[in-house]
Design brief:
With 138 residues, the protein is an alpha/beta fold. The chain has 2 domains: 1-70, 2,3-Dihydroxybiphenyl 1,2-Dioxygenase, domain 1 (Roll), CATH 3.10.180.10; 73-138, Signal recognition particle alu RNA binding heterodimer, srp9/1. It has helices at 13-24, 86-97; strands spanning 5-9, 27-33, 51-58, 61-67, 79-82, 101-107, 112-119, 125-131. The strands form 2 sheets. The chain has a 4-stranded mixed β-sheet, with helices on one face. The chain has a 4-stranded mixed β-sheet with strand order 5-8-7-6, covered by helices on one side. The protein starts with a strand and ends in a 7-residue tail after the last strand. The mean pLDDT is 94.
């Protein structure tokens, strides 16, 4: 069994996945539009280029997505990128915050050398985390 995350977009799934590919090191594995569906009688003309199903590989896991006319931005869930350096945390946070909304500025905390939360321009919530090494328990 495997568990993957599936996110819905309001018409910009392809743009989002290409952005993640360019800025987050993701790799788009497949992308199918509504024009690829066998029954075109149910596809409105303005949704032919919208994504029916897409999948990308990112940080060792799979993220899937689609365009859904009624999609709303994420509210209580976050995709979390746990990174290996402060520089990488800052780079990723800046890319995701560009034209997005900073929910919690990237900063040092008691549990992380860098931690921040941002909603990207596509409505997806992200946590960027560079954890501190915790002392071993006795």
């Amino acid at each position: 069994m495997r568990m993957h995350t599936y996110v819905n977009f309001a018409g910009n799934c392809a743009e989002a996945f290409r952005f993640y590919e360019q800025h987050l090191g993701a790799s788009v594995q497949m992308m199918m539009t509504h024009a690829d569906a066998p029954d075109q009688s149910r596809v409105p003309p303005d949704w032919k280029n919208a994504v029916l199903h897409a999948r990308l590989s990112i940080a060792g896991t799979t993220l899937s997505g689609a365009d859904i006319p009624s999609a709303e931005p994420m509210r209580s869930a976050y995709l979390t990128l746990n990174v290996d350096s402060d520089d990488e945390a800052e780079r990723l946070f800046a890319a995701l915050a560009d034209s997005g909304k900073v929910l919690m500025p990237l900063a040092e905390t008691f549990f992380a050398s860098r931690f921040g939360q941002v909603r990207d321009r596509f409505g997806i919530n992200w946590m960027i985390l560079r954890e501190r090494a915790l002392p071993a328990k006795a």
